[in-house]
Design a protein that fits this description.
The protein is of the alpha+beta class. Helices cover about 30% and strands about 25% of the residues. The protein folds into two domains: about 220 residues, Alpha-Beta Complex (Spore Coat Polysaccharide Biosynthesis Protein SpsA, Chain A), CATH 3.90.550.10; about 180 residues, Galactose-binding domain-like (Jelly Rolls), CATH 2.60.120.
Length: about 475
């Protein structure tokens, strides 16, 4: 009987935990109304096909869905395979198929974008799915910079493959996980490759050159693209890695030549390349929300101090810098950065979490950009909710909170933090009332830590709600 009693108690805990997860998810998603559309739609999606037709069909179905109405105007499937594709292979009224007479590899996506009728292009490979809310967020946030959406391991790789000096400053980034780029950048990039006189092999590997030759730090979002399969991978084994590094080195060599020409010429004119001489300021880390439309931002220092060094001055030193920086990464750091990324704080999954690689420090700031969601909520006030561990609950209590419509003028909120502990999950749900006369126009909500604590941040989920519901804690 005692064993039966223990089993019953254990089963009750499991069921309660599952109900807790379900209630968290439903409350988060119910908080947000469908986002406003961009009218008219002004994004062309470009998908390359080689051998994974089933994947391409699945991707087109997602891009053509009603959830992206008002964002995606046209979908271009560029078919590099000699076997033609036809409209009957798909069900989409936004689709345009281009059956290429030759396999143009990755340059094809830039050609398709440069010839698009829209100012923006969404680029992705055929082995990943990017959720509609992420694509909508990309469109809502893009300004003068392209935005690259990468999984955490590729974000770390991008930080390693970077140079930050007076004349050369870039971070290598892949486009295939989902990127929103300007059409004029694609056209200028192709023009630059033509002026450089790159070889046919090099132009086919255009992806390896795009971020480096821009000579600017891209805006990178830490995300969670969904892997698809189907074989036919282009980069396979040591040979594929060696090929990629060969073309990264070639891109770096071209950039150094351009910078040298700029410094020695009285009137240099190079398309696409940014020739600003001041290094950019360190950027925020950003992640798109899943299950709703928002962006979560952090200024929490996540990388070792060695990553801000400017010892390396030329693009050609990219692999030397990568080697030096890699030695500064401990196994614990790498594991934490990849397994507990910022994106886990806003993925609508309370079983995952963001964990900072350093302890909390005075001045740490977290910002939730909800676009127009706050305007759709009650104007009497909203609550900023957090699902955290006990240490982070302490940080929330020692933080200040504010909101803004433009990021330049912030209104303080004096609401007290209220936390409730779950008997089953050992987590705390903390709620911060946000009130003020200008709340109806608020878009950005900010937390700022007032004191340094000897604990890392650990956030399982954060979201806004109307402040009218009961606690989620069971």
């Amino acid at each position: 009987m005692k064993q039966l009693g223990k089993f019953t108690a254990f089963l009750a805990i499991v069921v309660a935990a599952l109900l807790f997860d379900t209630r968290i998810l439903s409350f988060i998603q119910a908080t947000y109304s469908p986002p406003k559309s961009h009218v008219p739609a002004d994004v062309t999606a470009v998908v390359l096909n080689w051998v994974r037709v089933a994947n391409v069909v699945q991707i087109v179905a997602l891009l053509c869905g009603s959830s992206l109405d008002g964002v995606i105007k046209e979908i271009v499937v560029w078919n590099n395979n000699p076997l033609p594709l036809v409209d009957n292979d798909f069900t989409c009224n936004k689709l345009r198929i281009h059956n290429s007479t030759a396999n143009l590899y990755f340059q094809a996506r830039f050609i398709a974008c440069a010839n698009a009728s829209t100012p923006y292009c969404f680029i992705q490979d055929d082995d990943y799915l990017v959720k509609p809310e992420v694509i909508r967020s990309l469109r809502s946030r893009i300004d003068n910079q392209d935005i690259f959406h990468l999984p955490p391991d590729e974000v770390l790789s991008s930080r390693l493959l970077s140079i930050n000096s007076s004349f050369v400053h870039f971070a290598f980034s892949w486009l295939g996980y989902g990127a929103l780029i300007h059409r004029h950048n694609a056209a200028s990039f192709l023009s630059l490759l033509g002026r450089l006189g790159v070889s046919q092999e090099e132009i086919k590997m255009a992806d390896n050159y795009y971020s480096i030759l821009s000579n600017s730090f891209p805006e990178i979002w830490i995300g969670a693209p969904i892997a698809l399969f189907g074989g036919g991978d282009f980069t396979v084994g040591e040979e594929g890695v060696a090929r990629n590094r060969k073309h990264i080195a070639a891109a770096a060599k071209y950039l150094d030549a351009i910078v040298t020409d700029t410094n020695s010429s009285s009137n240099p004119e190079w398309p696409y390349v940014s020739l600003k001489t001041s290094p950019p300021k360190p950027g925020l880390e950003r992640s798109p929300c899943l299950g709703r439309l928002c962006i979560f931002e952090s200024n929490i220092l996540s990388l070792p101090d060695s990553f801000v060094t400017d010892t390396y001055k030329t693009a050609g030193e990219i692999f030397s810098r990568e080697t030096e920086l890699s030695t500064a990464l401990t196994e614990e750091f790498t594991s934490t950065y990849i397994k507990f990324p910022l994106s886990h704080a806003v993925d609508s999954d309370p079983d995952t979490s963001f964990k900072s690689t350093r302890n909390a420090a005075q001045g740490d700031a977290l910002v939730l950009d909800v676009f127009d969601a706050a305007q759709q909520m009650t104007q009497k006030g909203v609550e900023w909710s957090w699902l955290v561990d006990a240490g982070t609950a302490q940080m929330l209590r020692t933080s200040t909170y504010s909101y803004s419509s433009d990021r330049s003028s912030w209104a303080e909120s004096s609401g007290a933090v209220f936390c409730t502990t779950s008997a089953y999950t050992a987590l705390q749900e903390c709620r911060v009332p946000v009130e003020g006369a200008s709340l109806a126009s608020a878009r950005y909500f900010r937390l700022q830590l007032r004191s340094t604590l000897d604990l890392p941040w650990r956030i399982y989920e954060t979201w806004l709600d109307t402040g009218t519901r009961a606690s989620l804690i069971l």
